[in-house]
Amino acid sequence: MTGKERRWLNPRKGIVKVAERKMDLVVSRFLYPHMLRVWNPYSWLLERRFAVAEISISPAGWPKKIPRLKVLLLTDIHAGIFLKPALLSDIIGSLMELQPDLVAVAGDIVTGQPSDLDRFLPALAPLARASLGAWFCYGNHDYYSGDPDTIRRNLSSIGITTLKNESVVLTHGNGSLVLGGIDDRILGKPDWDQLVSEHGSPHLLLAHHPDFFYEAESNGVALTLSGHTHGGQIRFPHGEPLVRQSQFYLDEGAYAYHSSLLIVSRGLGSVVLPWRFGADPEAVLIDIIPPK
Q1: Using CA atoms, how far apart are residues 210 and 246, in angstroms rounded to an integer?
Q2: Considering the entire predicted model, what is its pTM?
Q3: Interatomic CA distance for residues 6 and 13, integer angstroms
């Protein structure tokens, strides 16, 4: 990326975006729960179209003393109305057979409220078996109810740790790295000063919204992991996403700016419409190779 890419309309602002967000909240919390007995095709689609993307990278600012690291990136699970616990359990079981060293859950774990998570905790619990643990940062949907602390507590009960403008030092082999998580860009209160105050700039950052990328680069972050965009969720072949969530064209895939890297996953779940087209659900397995 050049750092100069900008969409004409800022997806975070304006009447249309505010209206979209309000509609998303109302539909997710109050309308679809009553419609699911009549029409809920998403689990059918997820079972058939979910895939694992794989990428090998060597970030320039990555610690040189640690061995190769396998990170499983899961975003936008949206536990709740469109998803069946048994199907999520099967997917996570197959993902953990890949033996990731670390699991990153980059926001929007629920659809509209903390109770969406209740039936899914047993399905999510295996993520914590990764040798370096499972870690979570908040997304905008995690704030829809105004009670994100309940999500933090529920995830903690199954061994998944939430990072909100916080960082930790993880030991891997003969070296260590700093893992951080920043609060949601839209409804949270991101605080870079707090994030870097204890351990310095993270080598690996969980940031639900990909538009944190340039701020992350300026703060010395080697690798940022994001979601939020769903890859557009509805996207015609070789075309732009119909719903554009990134002001900087960071819609899906891997990006580089100066010495910093970003990976944006299309995520697992769905919102507003229980369907995807041209932007199939995914998880991303990232093989991080220390630079020479």
Answers
A1: 7
A2: 0.94
A3: 14
Instruction: Name the H helices within 28-172.
Output: 32-35, 42-49, 85-96, 121-124, 148-156
CA 15, CA 132: separation in Å to the nearest integer?
Answer: 43
DSSP state of 71: E
Structural tokens at position 188? 């949270």
Longest dimension (CA), the chain: 56
Q: If we measure between CA atoms, which residue out of 190, 210, 187 comes closest to residue 75? A: 210
Mean pLDDT by 10 residues, the chain (292 residues): 88 69 71 63 93 98 96 96 93 98 97 91 98 97 92 98 98 97 96 97 98 98 98 87 90 97 97 89 98 88
- Please check whether the domain covering 15-288 is classified as CATH 3.60.21.10: yes
For the chain, the straight-line distance linking the first and the last C-alpha, in angstroms and rounded, comes to 24
Domain ranges of the chain: 15-288
- Give 274's contacts (C-beta < 8 A, 6+ positions apart): 32, 39, 40, 41, 42, 81, 82
The C-alpha atoms of residue 24 and residue 26 are separated, in whole angstroms, by: 6
